[in-house]
Amino acid sequence: QVQLVESGGGLVQAGGSLKLSCVASGRSSSTYARSWFRQAPGKEREFVATVLWTGAADTYYADSVKGRFTISRDNAKNTVYLQMSSLKPEDTAVYFCATKHSRTHAGVYYYTYIHEYDNWGQGTQVTVAA
């Protein structure tokens, strides 16, 4: 079983920045994509960003974070990052890392649904003060 551990959350003022990290450990498994989701109080968990784990590291973002957040990977460290800038109070949420082990759709497709992922971390809290 793969374990994912997120870190880097905290309290930041609106307009500020944070960088989240997610390290994978445990039994070795293939990775096709690694992503970030978030869940605000009283709301459903939503997709934030994804990066493919092989090749050119294609990325895809939710419209709400495009241009402000950047997802990146370090395969050697088995770590995915989320650099968050120009943070807004509405970005306040618990941020979760997730891994998808294998490709299940043909063609160009980015996995943005919760049920498409195999492993999840416990989350890290991000609070943006107005």
Description:
0% of the residues lie in helices and 49% in strands. It is built from no helices and eleven strands. The strands form two sheets. Strands 2, 4, 5, 6, 9, 10 and 11 form a seven-stranded mixed beta sheet that branches. A four-stranded antiparallel beta sheet has the order 1-3-8-7, with no helix packed on it. The model has no long low-confidence stretch (mean pLDDT 95).
What is the topology?
Blueprint: E1 2-7, E2 10-13, E3 18-26, E4 33-39, E5 46-52, E6 59-61, E7 69-74, E8 79-84, E9 93-100, E10 119-120, E11 124-129
Parallel strand pairs: 2-11
Antiparallel strand pairs: 1-3, 3-8, 4-5, 4-9, 5-6, 7-8, 9-10, 9-11
Summary of the model, kept short:
With 130 residues, the protein is an all-beta fold. 0% of the residues lie in helices and 49% in strands. Strands 2, 4, 5, 6, 9, 10 and 11 form a seven-stranded mixed sheet that branches. The protein has a four-stranded antiparallel sheet with strand order 1-3-8-7, with no helix packed on it.
- List the secondary-structure elements in sequence, H or E: EEEEEEEEEEE
Number of strands: 11
- Compute the average pLDDT: 95
Share of helical residues:
under 10%
What is the oligomeric state here? single chain
Main attributes of the structure:
single chain, 130 residues, mainly beta, seven-stranded mixed β-sheet, four-stranded antiparallel β-sheet, 11 strands, 0% helix
